[in-house]
Here is the input.
Amino acid sequence: MNMYSALRSFIDQWANFQTRSRRSEFWWVQFAYIMVTAVAISLDYSVLGLSAEDGLTPFILLVEVVTLIPMAALMARRLHDVGLTGWAQLPLYLTYISYIPGYDDFIVSGLAKSGAELVLAVLYWAYFVWILYNLVKDGDRWANRYGANPKYKRG
Here is the structure.
């Protein structure tokens, strides 16, 4: 699958959480997402004079809001390709909690004192490596409970 067909499939299935997606579709879309994010960062900096230190900037916020559901759907389909449930991606979205006002005060006053913050960080990174492994490996060769393998599908 080339980049054009991957992006076409991504757009056509922007809210499809049911079927399977190939590795090539997933990684071409990730590449495009990085490029769009780079443009958003450049616009935030050059047009608005904002940087990462300013927090969630307008153009980055726009990219995040527009792509949140389609990217979640794509990752769910990719996880389906390796036989996992799409819900397995849910812990990855915990990083968005840091944007909630007052969250930093909670972490500094509560978790950091107990040492739980370190334990949670180690667990999160171990989970991230496991998810990354599953996103990189080849999908189930035969049909699984999420459908036929899109790599070998004819038609």
